Amino acid sequence: IMFGGVADGSGWDNTSVFFNDLHSFDLEQRSWFGVRMKPKEGAVESVPPRFSAQCVIVGSVLYIYGGQVEVNKRECTFDDMYSIDLNKMDTFTELLANTAVIEEVAMLEDSDDEDGPSGTDDDDDGDDNDDAVDDD
H or E element: which one contains 74? Predict the structure, then answer.
């Protein structure tokens, strides 16, 4: 079983494209094939796209932990965990909620826009421009 992955420079603007699909290798046919979900109503049908996730199968359950994604050209690390019963293939179960990426993305947004978010009136003059006026 293989989960997720990344294709560097494959996006329309030459950015990386991240995946969240499952593939399985058939040893007899020596080929890969996509694994399809059979979701039940209200089920979690996918895990956020990522690469370098750690995966292990215990019995018939696949566990997916962590991984990375790129935000604003910086890599952020997930710390969440999901499971899926490979016999049923009907839902992903979130075992650990993600916290790391949320914090890292917030830090990235702050560092990328040190003058304040666009569309805000940082100089209180009634427009959305950050007019630096020296009154001396």
Answer: strand 74-85
Determine what percent of the chain falls in helix, strand and coil, rounding each to the nearest 5: 10, 40, 50
Name which of 13-17, 39-43, 114-118 the model is least confident about. Answer: 114-118
Give whole-number Cα distances, 93 to 63, 65, 85, in Å: 9, 12, 9
Length of the chain in terms of residues written = 136
CB 3 within 8 A of CB 55: yes
- Output the CA torsion sign for 16, 22, 25, 26: negative
95: three-class secondary structure by DSSP: strand
Q: Note if the pTM is more than 0.85.
A: no
DSSP 40: P
The β-bridge partners of 69 are 76
